[in-house]
């Protein structure tokens, strides 16, 4: 069977890595995004806004994918608005496909906010006991992940196609200008510390500093999505996906510091907002970028400090169980320090950090 993929959000941290993996596996890949000029030549660009049905119909008119992968989201002022906008993107894509019944499988990437709640009530109240498992019920709050899932389930039932949902923890991988990019944010922060003498302080909560946790390499996520989209065992299920190891930030922080040739500052015992620390550092970054000939002079294009604060500031332990996909045949594994260090190497090679 000839596989033809439509990746929604192909320029993002998840979409880029997935699209590249599918190309490497011999798939024909269409990459949909509002701006497609930075897509590699191996991916067929589809310039459209998933919230604009007219632009979607025009852009998708001659495209007949066998698989569609939803890897993007949009942020609004309230969770109610998030639910409306993000579920609309899913419905709009299905409605715009000229031959939707040619689809075999549809995949949706969400995340641990499925268990922790939306940004408005993030990790508050009584989140489920760790490790998070796919069998845990939905929280009794509005959550745009649930709205996206419901739109996917409705389309899959109507079209008679298979579906999967993938729930990563914090995704570490290569993407520039991404709304949620801890790895690149920490790379920019560490560079500022080395160049200006700012102490490299872990900005998160005592719970995150001390507790076991995990993350998801974008390459590991791409591997699981590919496995689920092509394996009978992966049909019609939701899967957690993390690297497969666990760590404590109090250990990993020193490993990251060493790569940049700096010392990890003593942990102060409380969260320290990275967004606040970086708020007035834009001119310093511009100076660093110009001195070293870097490609990006705007700190805001590299650092999404608000999201890193949200992830590292959680007051609860976050450990994810992925036994379900392992029992069904997915055996991928990624060593977490390499997730960060591989990314740092690529950012340096691309002249995004010195």
Automatic annotation (TrEMBL):
Start and end residues of each PRISE-like Rossmann-fold domain: 65-354
Superkingdom assignment: Bacteria
Keywords assigned by UniProt, alphabetized: Oxidoreductase
Recorded GO MF terms: GDP-4-dehydro-6-deoxy-D-mannose reductase activity
Gene3D superfamilies referenced in this protein's UniProt entry, alphabetically: NAD(P)-binding Rossmann-like Domain (3.40.50.720)
E.C. number(s) listed in UniProt: 1.1.1.281
Pfam family, one: PRISE
Keyword Hydrolase among record annotations: no
Protein name: GDP-6-deoxy-D-mannose reductase
The organism of origin for this protein: Komagataeibacter europaeus
Gene expressing this chain: rmd
């Amino acid at each position: 069977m000839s596989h033809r993929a439509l990746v929604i959000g192909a320029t993002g941290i998840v979409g880029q890595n997935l699209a590249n993996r599918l190309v490497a596996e011999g798939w024909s890949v269409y990459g949909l995004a509002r701006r497609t000029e930075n897509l590699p030549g191996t991916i067929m660009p589809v310039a459209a806004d998933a919230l604009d049905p007219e632009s979607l119909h025009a852009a998708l008119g001659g495209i007949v994918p066998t698989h569609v992968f939803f890897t993007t989201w949009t942020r609004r002022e309230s969770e109610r608005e998030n639910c409306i906008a993000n579920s609309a993107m899913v419905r709009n894509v299905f409605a715009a496909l000229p031959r939707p019944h040619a689809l075999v499988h549809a995949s949706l990437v969400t995340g641990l906010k499925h268990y922790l709640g939306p940004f408005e009530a993030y990790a508050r109240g009584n989140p489920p006991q760790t490790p998070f498992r796919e069998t845990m019920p939905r929280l009794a709050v509005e959550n745009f992940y649930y709205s996206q899932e419901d739109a996917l389930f409705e389309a899959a039932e109507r079209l008679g196609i298979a579906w999967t949902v993938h729930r990563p923890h914090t995704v570490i991988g290569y993407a520039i200008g991404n709304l949620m990019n801890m790895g690149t944010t920490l790379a920019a922060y560490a560079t500022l510390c080395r160049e200006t003498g700012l102490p490299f302080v872990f900005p998160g909560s005592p719970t995150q500093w001390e507790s076991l946790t995990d993350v998801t390499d974008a390459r590991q996520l791409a591997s699981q999505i590919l496995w689920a989209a092509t394996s009978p065992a992966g049909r019609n299920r939701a899967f957690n996906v993390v690297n497969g190891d666990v760590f404590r930030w109090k250990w990993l922080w020193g490993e990251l510091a060493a790569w940049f040739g700096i010392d990890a500052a003593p942990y102060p015992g409380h969260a320290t907002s990275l967004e606040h620390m970086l708020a007035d550092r834009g001119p310093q970054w511009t100076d660093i970028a110009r001195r070293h000939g870097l490609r990006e002079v705007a700190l805001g294009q590299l650092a999404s400090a608000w999201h890193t604060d949200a992830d590292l500031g959680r007051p609860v332990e976050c450990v994810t169980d992925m036994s379900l996909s392992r029992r069904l045949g997915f055996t991928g594994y990624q060593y977490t320090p390499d997730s960060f260090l591989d990314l740092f190497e690529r950012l340096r090679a691309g002249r995004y950090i010195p």
